Amino acid sequence: MSTLPPPVRRIAADRHPRVVAPTAPGEGSGNGASTAVPGAAGGSAILARRRAARPAAAYPPEERMQIESVSLAYGEKWVVRDVSLPVRRGEVLALIGASGSGKTTLLRSLNRLTEITAGAGRAGRITLDGEEIHEIEVNALRRRVTMVFQQPNPFPMSIFENVAYALREAPGRRRRARRATLEPAVREALRRAGLHDEVAEDLDRPALSLSGGQQQRLCIARALAADPEVLLLDEPCSALDPISTAVIEELIVELRESVAIVIVTHNLQQAQRVADHVAFMHLGELVEYGTAEQVFDQPRQQRTRDYIGGAFG
Amino acid sequence: MSAEAFPPAVPPAAPPHPREARRQRHAAQLTAHRKEAARDRRVEFALGTLAAGTLALIAAMLVTVLVNGWPSFEANGLGWFGNSGDPVLQFRAMQVGTALPGHPLLYFSAWPLIWGTLLCTIGAVVIALVVSTLAAIFITEFAPLPVRRVLEPVVRLLAGVPSVIYGLVGLLLLAPWVNSLISIPRKESVQYVVQLSGEGLLTATLVLTVMILPIMIALISGALAAVPATWREGSVALGVNRWRTIWRVSVRAARPAIVSATVLGTARALGEAIMLAMIGGGRPWAPNPLDGLTFLFEPIQPLAASIVKEFGDNPNTPIGHTVYAIAALLLFSAALLSLAGWAVRQPLKRYGIGI
Amino acid sequence: MASAGPALQPPAAAIVRPRRESTSSWPLVDRLAYWLCWAVGIGLCVVAVGIVVFMFIKGISALRPSLFVESPSPGVLAEKHSGGFLDPLIGTFILTAIGIGIAAPAGVGIAVWLVEYARPRWLARAVESGIETIAGIPSIVLALFGLLLFARPLFAFLSGSASNGTVGGQSFLNAGIIMSVLALPLVVGASREALLQLPARMREASYALGKTRATTIRRVLLPSSRTGIASGAVLGMGRIIGDTAIILILLGTLKLEGAGGAPVLNTLRGTGSTLSYYIYYYAPSGDGNSPQKAYAAGFVLLMLVLALNALVTRLSKGLSLGTTTWTAKR
Fold first, then answer.
1. Whole-prediction pTM
2. Most buried of A92, A132, B42, C120, CB within 10 angstroms?
3. Which candidate in A20, A78, A308 is best for mutational testing of the C interface (most C CBs within 10 A)?
């Protein structure tokens, strides 16, 4: 086991109290996100609780994807400019920033979902395990880098069929594979998504009969069924109630052992709760990247400080 | 100026007590309210009767058509559906008024008509189902924008084109071409039995297909376009290629519309009388699949077309009774079809796809 | 601070503009399906546009102004070159007017009952199925029923009678009544859609003001659903002008033939034809067999259908009645 993190209280006592005056409090964006966090002391309370509650990662994080000087455009308008980030298995990377900062676009470019829109352009390199993703066949890429969306979108089929969907469509597997062949994989995916206990008795129920939080976990299970290397989450909890949110955040922290996770979130507290590394983006540019402690407790850039302090949202 | 010249003085009425005035006002309001409620109930009753009138209409139709066609069923029994004779001779006998030897005047065996109807209806619907689904997928997913902008109004226009025009185009465009496909030896080989021309099973089925296609395409395209984008995006994000996404998500979600379209198309094909009377070949004949390629060119006269061709204007003649018997059969099939369509759509509602 | 900053400059490095997902990586089955789809699509284009263009060309070449003003002349020696379709044209208009004149109020009434009242529930469900069933009944069967119904002495006032007293049963009035049954499901469907789309707050606001249901319907709901009802009526008109089977059974003389009596009633109780019957008669399969006239009449009929279609599209654009284009959401 690597070195234990230093006790929390000593850190809090060592630092000068930093007071960031929040400006117009009504500037927060929707989703009740970046409420003013007066002083970094509040931030480290959340981080402190988290460190106390969970052990550090078992294995050192292993690099999965490398984003190198990537710029993204829709048509002639560049929405992301010159971003470089690593994505590692064993840790959660959170992309935070105001609306329009380009974080969702960056996320979607990781599995080439930006290509659905005509006129999308890209400069720079994105590699998965060393391979440039544009050279991998797009559907094979999307099976290795899967995505969960903001609104839960289970298909109008049974729970089993939803999770088995990606499995059935994987090449090399018979489309009409019998249920018995697929069932173990489906149950495993449901277990990893934390949904198995709730639905185990009847996997043939319509997926749309589940609650919102359960549907989102079903979508996560569906994304995990193909055993991806990277899981992309686009504000997965913004449409859910707090209890479902808490369940999914627990899930995310558990999953990071096996899958590299990139999460886009508007909610600063959520980023503080789940993220290991944080990248703050503003108007398409990467302003700051570092560990959660660095970015939330000791932000180096003024803009980061302003955002975390709630000066804009 | 006697006292009688003037009406006796009436003391002015005392102003009513305030409570009395209020009571009078309330009573007036209550009466008005009751009147309005009564009027509301009258309106509801009137409209309800009107609505129930549709059911009465259907019932009346079933009863009268069946009653007038009953003599034909009665005279033939189950043989009405059989193949014991040639409908051409039977119709002529009924028109002339002399029964065929050994048979009653109402003697009739409808199998050639029924078989012709089954062949061209099922043929047209099967082809139209496949073509309309693929065409709808093409229109909503693959067609470039200018193509789509042209196709949509054209398909809508064709859905509204009357069947006579389809018959006309079929007669003047398709029939000569099909005619040229039939070789002279083939025609000669059957000339003592039946006349082969461009008007026959193949032409009829093709034109029928083209006739029911537009409405089916319109229905299915509408349903495909209404599939939520989130499902399609979710499927693509899982690494499923575009065609499989369309097939497994969009088309699946549009299944109720596909069923509705099929039912609608079948109903239209069953009831099509005019166009098939024009290009069916004009002779009640049961094409025999064992005849090989000639099978495609043999003439047919489906049930509805037979009504058009044979009916005079008097329902009370033998021909009238026969025709009404045919109409009763058609009515029964239409009702059965409606029921079947409803039954097929029910299981689909479970998983969240509904119409 | 959070204002939109200056536009980002394009990077110096090479820009990749990814193209649509290529199909070369798909399994063979999927590729075949994709090409089949394209083949069907192109075939559809060709056939659809071909039919329309064919009818246009043939129709325009056969069209003469005299056709519009002359009556048909069946049986005349030079039939192929004489006579026009004035009577059928008039007949079409009369029939459409009668048909929609009956179907529109009845259809709206039924739709209102289905949406606003619908009590008892079993009756409402039965009526809905009933309307669907009527939509599926072949028009020839409706026509036969009409003949049975109207050939009785009870309805003698609706049509002309033969000299020996048997009721003919064939007249514009009779055909119009049956046509209205044909158009009824379309009017009911469209009106129902329009009423269902009205927001609940409209009704709630009216009730909150103390209005009864009948007044709400008359003053608030029906005016708001005008366009939906109108498009239903136009769809019904399209169905009426296209039907020939009912004309065959319940009308069926090329020229307008009155039934004797008062001027307008004379025509209404008499027989005649419509454009569609005219085409049927003069098609090669009919008794007239002069394709030129059939083409010309076909062209006029097609123009009418086109006009009605355009009207429906215009009307439904004003509403938010579902998708007016079949563009899959991207």
1. 0.82
2. A92
3. A78
Superfamily of domain A8-308: P-loop containing nucleotide triphosphate hydrolases (3.40.50.300)
- What does the block give as tokens for A265? 């979130």
Q: Which chains sit next to B, with 3 or more Cβ pairs under 8 A? A: A, C
Give the minimum alpha-carbon distance from B109 to chain C in angstroms, rounded to a whole number: 20
Q: Does C147 touch chain B (CB under 8 A)?
A: yes
> In which domain, by residue range, is B257 found?
114-315
Percent of chain C with pLDDT over 90: 22
For residue B33, give both structure tokens: 């309210």
CB A129 within 8 A of CB A87: no
Is beta strand A92-96 parallel, antiparallel or unpaired with respect to A277-282? parallel
- Name the domain count of chain B: 1
CATH number at residue B149: 1.10.3720.10
Whether residues C212 and B37 touch (CB distance < 8 A) is answered with yes
For the segment C179-206, what is each residue's pLDDT rounded down to a tens digit?
999 999 999 999 998 899 888 898 888 8
Of C223, A143, C164, give the one whose Cα is nearest residue B236. Answer: A143
Question: Assign residue A227 a region: left if phi > 0, alpha if psi is -120 to 50, beta otherwise?
Answer: left
**ipTM for the complex?**
0.84
In whole angstroms, what is the distance from residue C280 CA to residue C84 CA? 14
Low-confidence ranges of chain B (pLDDT < 50): 1, 354-355
Task: Please judge whether C26 and B270 are an interchain contact, meaning their C-beta atoms are less than 8 angstroms apart.
Answer: no
Does the beta carbon of A141 lie under 8 angstroms from any beta carbon of chain B?
Answer: yes
Name, in order, each residue with C-beta under 8 angstroms of B353's C-beta and a sequence gap of 6 or more.
A156, B252, B253, B255, B256
Is B93 within 8 Å of B104 (Cβ atoms)?
Answer: no
Listed by number, the residues of chain C in 236-295 with a beta carbon closer than 8 Å to a beta carbon of chain B are 238, 241-245, 248-249, 252, 276, 279-280, 283-286, 291, 294-295
Give the tens place of pLDDT for each residue, A234-279: 999 888 888 888 889 888 988 888 899 999 998 888 888 888 899 9
Q: Which helix (H) or strand (E) holds B345?
A: helix B318-345
Q: Residue B55: its pLDDT value, please?
A: 92
